[in-house]
Specification:
This protein has one domain. Helices cover about 35% and strands about 15% of the residues. The protein is built from 4 helices and 3 strands. A 3-stranded antiparallel beta sheet has the order 1-2-3, with no helix packed on it. The longest helix is centred in the first third of the chain and has 26 residues, at about 1-25. The protein is globular and about 45 Å long.
């Protein structure tokens, strides 16, 4: 039982360091040394972890920090980001402005987000019923009154 608690604490520490590095750069873009320290500490903690789930992936991934100097890579602030073509493939190239190290990430033009896929759309599902319009609930108060009350109100207004 001690394992999951330790892993959760380590993940919280990694998450805190990641958020702290972003907050430091958001408040003062000139304070890149402190953000670099947070990213370096995050990387050393992640290297010590043996659990696959806690290694940096996705939003806490290695594409967010430079492998050379541990700077947090924010396009336009601490790195440049360019789209390149090489041998018929599309690549995103990030170049760190501190140490000039570049990283390449393959772009897949055929990749579709889940929301854009046909099976994610409600109308294209085979077992779904066509959507019925909602009944109009925006009636005036006089529409809900019985006819005899409406007649008495009409005669009292005259």
């Amino acid at each position: 039982m001690a394992g999951p608690v330790k892993d959760r604490e380590a993940f919280q520490r990694l998450n805190f360091l990641y958020q702290a590095a972003h907050c430091v750069l958001a408040q003062d873009p000139e304070n890149q040394a402190l953000a670099r320290f947070y990213c370096y500490t995050e990387r050393t903690i992640a290297k010590r972890l043996t659990t696959i789930l806690l290694r940096p992936q996705g939003s806490l991934g290695e594409e967010d920090s430079c492998r050379g100097c541990s700077s947090l890579l924010v396009p336009g602030l601490t790195c440049t980001q360019r789209q390149r073509r090489c041998r018929g493939q599309r690549w995103t190239v990030q170049t760190c402005l501190t140490c000039q190290r570049s990283q390449r990430f393959l772009n897949d033009p055929g990749h579709l987000l889940w929301g854009d896929r046909p099976e994610a759309q409600l109308g294209s599902q085979a077992d779904s019923k066509p959507l019925q319009p909602l009944p109009n609930t925006a009636h005036s108060i006089s529409d809900r009154l019985p006819e005899e009350k409406m007649q008495t109100q009409g005669s009292s207004n005259q």
